[in-house]
Amino acid sequence: DSIWQMRAAAFEGQRRAILVTFTDLTAVEEANQIRRDFVANVSHELRTPLTAIMGFIETLRGPARDDPGVRGRFLDIMEREANRMVQLVDGLLSLSRVEVDERVRPTTPVDLKALAEETIAALEPLAAQGNNTVTLHAEPGNWIVPGDIGQLHQVLRNLVQNALKYGGPDKNVVIALHPAQFDVALRATAVRIDVQDEGPGIEAHHIPRLTERFYRVDAHRARTVGGSGLGLAIVKHIVNRHRGRLAISSTPEKGSTFSVLLPQE
Ligand code: ADP
């Protein structure tokens, strides 16, 4: 108070204006917190497999040196852990690439039906492993959207991979293409791609958090099925870059549907 009075007195009689500025630091602080969490998460995710690999090296040097059976098993585990790290680094690179050009909307015409067929063919071996089928439902129609073919391929691949990974064995995964309709949220005419599984579903309170980096419903289970926890974060960023939206709905015990809406014009 006294400072204000002194200042007011100093300016008295002089035609001066006082400019008071307030800066809201909440958003800056939030961004800093997100960055700190991110670095902590990445470090943890990389450290876990590294610690495991180092532990196995130690054992291979010592007690397991002359036991070919143990050696083979340990090498398998080390390979799996190293693969996990490769997946994580690949995921981080994809994420940062998408973030860099998120402001630039891609415009190359992409045929979503052809892309879905390619995805199914590419994931055939993974589907066969779990005795799953992946089927495409699409009426004749216009499935062309402006986009980045590589990134849209990644969206479909991540969603179908998740449906296979989390859906469980002997189940059917459906990719359904729905013709363009006006979408109120997007205020645009958008094609919808649904990826549906018949898996255990996801409890409602997890759904809003699934696209956070490293968020996993069941960390232990997710570790055994593999994955980096970045897949849906990447999907969300790619869909945002295409000015579309991702909607997730799920019924426990029945299955989940991940819907991607992409504006057609
Ligand atoms: P990741 O699969 O590498 O763990 P994602 O970002 O792709 O990471 O998925 C985040 C989490 O969302 C998964 O760990 C899993 O718990 C949950 N999830 C994703 N897709 C499905 C699905 N189709 N059914 C059930 N849970 C799912």
UniProtKB/TrEMBL annotation:
The lineage of its organism: Bacteria, Pseudomonadati, Pseudomonadota, Alphaproteobacteria, Rhodobacterales. GO terms for cellular component: plasma membrane. It catalyses: ATP + protein L-histidine = ADP + protein N-phospho-L-histidine. Keywords: ATP-binding, Cell membrane, Kinase, Membrane, Nucleotide-binding, Phosphoprotein, Transferase, Two-component regulatory system. Its main location: membrane. It is found in: Cell membrane. GO terms for biological process: cellular response to phosphate starvation. This is histidine kinase.
